[in-house]
Amino acid sequence: YDSKNPKPMVLFDGKPFLHWLVRSYVVQGFKEIYFSIGHMAERFEEYPWAIEFPGVTFRFVSEGKPLGTGGAVCEVLRQHLSLQAAWVVNGDTLIDCNLPDEGQFLRDDECRAFMLCAAPDKGFDAEANVHLVADRVEALGGTGCNAIDAGAVFLKREAVDSSIQSKNPPFGLHEVLKPSVADGRVKGERLSCEFYDIGTPERVKRFQG
User: Are 190 and 118 in contact (CB under 8 A)?
Assistant: First the structure.
């Protein structure tokens, strides 16, 4: 690990991991990217994103204190009221395939969020934390989970209800999703491709391999 950089900015082939993550979404056609940044925020802001990815708009939302993944999402939505839905992805996780077309979820009034999951038998050292039945997320955490959260969720603003918005951070994205899960309004899909997480030194080696 590089103590001079936050995890997403650790270099691989001369560029930060986050560069390769952003590149994977830019080639899919994404033109607007929001970064929620806290620890060592200047490392994210000083990178030449606009030069590396011309035509893409980058916006930064700084965390004055740790917000957690769920708190960060709430803060981005609070600061950008026109943002009605977005893919929420972990900055240290890369999915090796294209994201599904979000149009199908936008047209589905019964769906507040869509979660990409992975089977726990893919040789990845994370524990199952999603209970997925067919295309429906039945539970997040607890016993009986049969899939791993792959770090990419398509989230509609309506999934972030008032009780979550008033909660004191830090809290995780799963806390944001649980009310919608209880209502049966979070769908999911198992990935058919690999995904890589650099959250531990062992997972970094897996990505490098």
Answer: yes
Rg value, the chain, Cα: 17
Q: Where are the beta strands (DSSP E) in the chain?
A: 11-12, 15-16, 32-37, 57-62, 85-89, 93-95, 113-118, 130-133, 136-140, 148-156, 186-190, 195-197
Residues across the chain = 209
What is the reported pTM? 0.93
Q: Which residues pair with 139 in a beta bridge?
A: 131
Burial (CB < 10 A; 0-12, 13-18, 19+), residue 209, is exposed
75-110 pLDDT, tens digit each: 999 999 999 999 999 999 999 999 999 999 999 999
